Structure formats: C-alpha cells, structure tokens
Amino acid sequence: MGVGINLQPNAVRELFDLGLEAELDKIGIRTRQLGFYTKLGKTIWEEPRGLEAGYAWPQYSVHRGALQMMLYQALIARAGADCITLGARAVGFEQTATGAALLLADGTRKSGRLIVAADGIHSALRQQMYSEEGAPIWNGRILWRATTQGRPWKGEAVMVMIGHDSLRMVAYPISRPGPDGTATLNWIAEKSFDPEAPWKKEDWNRAADINDFIAEFEDWRFDWIDVPGLIRGAETVYEYPMVDRDPLPQWRFGAVSLMGDAAHPTYPVGSNGASQAILDARILGARFLAQGVTEAALDAYEDEVRPLATAICKTNRAGKGPDGVLQQVEDLCGGDFVTIEDVIPHADLAAHAARYKSIAGFSIEALNASPATIPATIPAGERLRD
Hints:
Blueprint: E1 4-7, H1 9-17, H2 21-27, E2 28-31, E3 33-37, E4 43-48, E5 59-63, H3 64-79, E6 90-96, E7 99-104, E8 109-112, E9 115-117, H4 124-129, E10 137-150, E11 158-163, E12 167-173, E13 183-192, E14 206-207, H5 227-232, E15 238-244, E16 256-258, H6 273-291, H7 295-317, H8 324-333, H9 346-360, H10 364-369
Helix pairs in contact: 1-6, 6-7
C-alpha cells in the first residue's frame, strides 16, 4: 500500500546489476525532474533527476505493489518457488548453539545460522531486542495518499513538491500516459497537527474522508496543476501518520540482525526508504560473499550501513532534507516573490540539493565513480555454497 515510491539511482544501480532493467522499465517510469513550488504555485527550484542529472543510472517512480511483485517473480525464477514461505508471521527469535531460530505466530520454529529481520517499522524482532522502545514516534503530521487518473504536469515524468512544513502536496506519475493522454498520478497530501492531539496514530491503512483536509488545498489551482481536482479524482484515499523511530546504537544481537525499516525507519523525505532497503540487502550480500554466513559479516554490514542510515534519519527529522527549501521560502516571504533570486540565491539552492545527495549516499560524481557493490563476476572460491 502507499502506492507510489521512488527509487534513487544508487538503488537502481543495484537492480540493474541484478539484470532487472527491462523489468523496471515495464512497471515504472524514469523520473526526469524534481521541482519545489510555493503554496502560490511559484517555482523555487527545479532540477533534473536520474540520467538527465548526469547519473549513470536513472531514477524510477513506480507502484510499490508492482515493484514487490517484480522482485518476487525474479526471485522465484532464480531460486525456485520454495524459497519463500507465505502466511508466516514472525513474533520473535531464540539464540541457538548453531545460530538462531525464528519463532512464528503459529508456534513453529525455523532454525538457521543467521536471522536477518526485515519485518518493518513494527518489527517484532526489534521489539524483542529493545523491549522498552514503545510505539513509533509521531511528529504531528498526517499523510493522505492515493492515485488519480489524469494528465501529467510539466512533462510526463516530473515529481513536484508544493507548500511548506504545515501543509504540502507531493505528486508524481507512476505510469506512462495511455492513448487518452492520462496516467496514474500518485499524490500525498500532508498536514501538521499538534503532536499531542488525540489522533489515531497507530490505526494504519485507514480509508479517509477527503473532507477532513481538502478545504486546506482549495486555492491550490495553478496553470500547471489543479491540486483539489487531483484529490477529488481519487477513488479511495488512505490516511497515515508520519512516524519514525530513534536510531539504534546496535543492530546485531548474537546471530540476529535488522535491515530496512526494521533497522532504520525514517520520514518519507528524499525518497530514501525503499532505496536504502535495497542497498541494505546488496551490502549484506557483499559481506556474506566476503566473510561467509557469519556474525562477522553482519557486523561488517552494520558498520557500513548504520552510520549512513542514522545520518539520513537525523537530517530528515531536522527538516534539512531536499524539501527544506519549502519552509525556508515560506519563512522569508510567505511564498510570494517576483524572482526566487530575491529570496534565496540560486547557488544556495544548488548547494542545499547537493548536500542532501551527499548525506544520503547518491552524490552524482561519487556514485558514478564507485565500484559495484557485488562484482558481476565473482571468483568461484568466494561463492556461497549453502
């Protein structure tokens, strides 16, 4: 659920290295531009993305479910249908003499040398490691997410962010236009509330009433996008609290470690969630190839990934993500100006965008020059045999 996600070039590189370029092109579109706009529809900053920005790999906007099914089909084609067990819910783990055992809700135990928990922001295995942590932390913002069939704006593959910290709209197409010129447009409306307000913060995936928020966006009709029309065009809208968790000091306990949102859930800022999970998996795979299926490999993976994930979480919390320019402009001029240069110099906007790419691990020059996470040809002696 949640519908649309973006895959940054550093994650797309890993999927291309797995031979999945054609599959990605079938299910998603190559994002060409990202733009930030005030509540009055005025342009703050527009930048090319993916190949247009100079990366060696594109950025993709894609339907989350389509991506999951593509990965599932690729896995069973390469590893066999029996490599996945459906209907199994993890509730905990036990350390054993030879590794660890995964405990499932139906009472069964699955033993192995290692367990890597990828069970999301509500991870049962993380909760066992940190029993006093409690529920995810709500920052006072609510997200309403949906898709609408409509005509893309500013080209066929442009992502836009409009508004400021208290009220914003994020929108981007996740399909190519059909014969009638319409595409599937993913959108997220966001509004801030008092974090102490009695909101159903943990009632996930709840169908929402657009009358709860659409009035805030009624004036957001510009010559290039009709925001209230976009909202009204959705068949079903879902409501989510914006939550994360505090960064952890340690992921591995014995033969058990964490990855993805179980390890480092962060606000959906900068399109990093899915991308980081893909990088987790590939870096972990590289460490397994180098050090075997061992706790030492888990440590090497954590040493590489945890500092980066922690920095992203803290940056997103501090409002220093790429969309931080929205609130800067709101604070300086209420979103109204003749030219953005009168408010923030172009060089400062460019530096802000480049800074976040560096923090998140996908600066253009560094990524293009970096070696493959897992070489295309692995010496036979380094292959995992079991």
